[in-house]
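[Automated response] Your request has been received and processed.

Submitted sequence:
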Amino acid sequence: MSDYSLEIAAEQAGETSLKDYYNLLKPRVMSLVVFTGFAGFWVAPNSETHPLLAIISMIALALGSGAAGAFNMWYERDLDTLMKRTKNRPLPRGKIDPDNALGFSIFASLAAFMMMGLSSNFIAASIMAFASFFYVVIYTMWLKPRTPQNIVIGGAAGAFPPVIGWAIATGNISLYPLILFAIIFMWTPPHFWALSLFANSDYKAAKIPMMTVTAGEKSTKIQMLVYTLLLFPLTLAPTLLGYSGEIYGASAFILSGFFIFTSVMTLREKEGSHKQAKRMFGYSVFYLFALFLALIIDASL
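Generated structure:
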């Protein structure tokens, strides 16, 4: 028996903790979902939304996102054992029984839907449910194991939170939240491809057809640059169309310009060296937080 198998056996002998279930929710992804969802809520005309109900709706959004993440971990538990960056998740380490993980995911999804519907409206709840369906079925089960365009199409699932936030406040959808959706949608491919550049061996081991596996590093880097260039004018659209002010516009110009710069540096990097790719990935996370924070600040002022 290998050392890693012994480690798993030791983990299985221990008790499941609340922390294990918390990790099953993919808390880092969940935090980004809640933040961008809150931004969509904050920039919407939400003067009649009761603060307590808004908080409950955000909790429901977090729970719905976490439930989708839990299903993803349940479905990919065998693949996760093959990848260095995922082998320490609760299911590969035997900390949570697969049946319990699936049951938890289903229960949390239903609870999130009802919480969202009762605290705000069922339009927001239905959009959240569709986003979860898209992530679980369209992305996780269908696209991810079949096509290198998995993250391009599947990225739509992670772009819904601002639309949900807007719907929580207004009960409808307009052009502004759709622009925010498009920003996240265009941000997703270069963000994940930067990760896949330095995690390419993991994807090869798990036989997941990421762009870096099927098209190679050079082609992937070129496509990353194209997406960051297309993203640049899109991030300026809220200001150009009069939805946001100069504070956001200036922030978007600087942040998006530097995102392009990180992509250029990654493209120029020698193949096999991933220092710049790691920097680009780290910046991409900061970039989206900072961009939506600028939206919140601008709307507040």
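Summary generated for your ticket: The radius of gyration is 20 Å. Confidence is low (pLDDT under 50) at residues 1-13.
If you did not submit this request, please reply to this message.
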